[in-house]
């Protein structure tokens, strides 16, 4: 038993070393990736069901590593957050997304909103507001067409400061959304204290509707309360017709998910804008 115990310990510590090393490697190469232009954005359409129109797109970061290939954001965003690299990375995402949205607007796509994910470290940085303003100025994008996505945990961390920052953004006409809604610890009642425009129902609750009674009840409650608080709602991760049916019946107007379109490069989306989504 002693033998086993020691071996087990060695096994874990070797694994932990390998992990720490992998992380360190990733950090180093992520730093280079930013400079070398290995990062790019894909865009996932958000649909208004009644009109069938694409009302917005969410920008999602991708990293094409020269040797390792495509690295998913779940792998590099947390490392970027831990190391502070999320600040230059996030700024790059914001600038690239705003420039792309401006280009689509110039190409004749009307009123298309661009949604950009903001991490805790970005949001809490004292120069966040200035950075956003500068990027809007540089790219010439109408602030109205920018939507910032923040998670519940970001805004709940320090409610008073969050309300101030959100208000600063709101008075500049920037759209604000709460991402992954329902996964945090907060109740809907806190929402009325925040100047937000919409909530995104987390994929985790959408996945098993209509069959899972608990999830169905949660989604129903979110939709009902959002309605009475006059908040816009979008459901994320819609993959099937039965999910769409359930959401539609309960007056969820906007949706995002593989059922409609996967995240895609800007060139591919441009084709869809000129042709329309085949659904
Ligand atoms: P998120 O903000 O919740 O983004 C939605 C994720 O769900 C995306 O994964 C998207 O590709 C995926 N998705 C969309 N529709 C469906 C569907 O119908 N079914 C399923 N199974 N998945 C769907 P992705 O692109 O891998 O991004 C993962 C997460 O990484 C994002 O979750 C976000 O938290 C983070 N992330 C991505 N890009 C950025 C970024 O530029 N900045 C920051 N701070 N975080 C980012
Ligand atoms: Ca998001
Ligand atoms: Ca989300």
From TrEMBL:
<feature type="domain" description="EAL">
    <location>
        <begin position="23"/>
        <end position="277"/>
    </location>
</feature>
<protein>
    <recommendedName>
        <fullName>Diguanylate cyclase/phosphodiesterase with PAS/PAC sensor(S)</fullName>
    </recommendedName>
</protein>
């Amino acid at each position: 038993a002693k033998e086993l115990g020691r071996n087990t310990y060695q096994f874990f510590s070797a694994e932990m070393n390998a992990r720490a090393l992998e992380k360190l490697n990733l950090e180093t190469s992520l730093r280079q990736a930013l400079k070398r232009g290995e990062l790019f954005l894909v865009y996932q359409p958000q649909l208004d069901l009644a009109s069938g129109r694409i009302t917005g797109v969410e920008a999602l970061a991708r990293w094409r590593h020269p040797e390792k290939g495509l690295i998913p954001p779940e792998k590099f965003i947390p490392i970027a957050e831990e190391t502070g690299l999320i600040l230059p990375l996030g700024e790059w995402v914001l600038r690239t997304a705003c420039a792309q949205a401006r280009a689509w607007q110039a190409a004749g796509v009307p009123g298309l909103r661009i949604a950009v994910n903001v991490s805790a470290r970005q949001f809490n940085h004292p120069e966040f507001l200035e950075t956003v303003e500068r990027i809007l100025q540089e790219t010439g994008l109408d602030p109205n067409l920018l939507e910032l996505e923040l998670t519940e945990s970001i805004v709940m961390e320090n409610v008073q400061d969050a309300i101030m920052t959100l208000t600063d953004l709101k008075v500049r006409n920037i759209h604000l959304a709460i991402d992954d809604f329902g996964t945090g610890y907060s109740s809907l009642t806190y929402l009325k204290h925040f100047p937000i425009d919409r909530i995104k129902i987390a994929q985790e609750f959408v996945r098993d509707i209509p069959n899972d009674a608990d999830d169905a009840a949660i989604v129903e409650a979110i939709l009902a309360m959002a309605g009475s608080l006059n908040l816009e709602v979008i459901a994320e991760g819609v993959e099937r017709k039965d999910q769409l049916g359930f959401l539609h019946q309960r007056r969820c107007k906007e949706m995002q998910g593989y059922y409609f379109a996967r995240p895609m490069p800007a060139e591919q989306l441009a084709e869809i804008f000129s042709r329309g989504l085949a659904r």
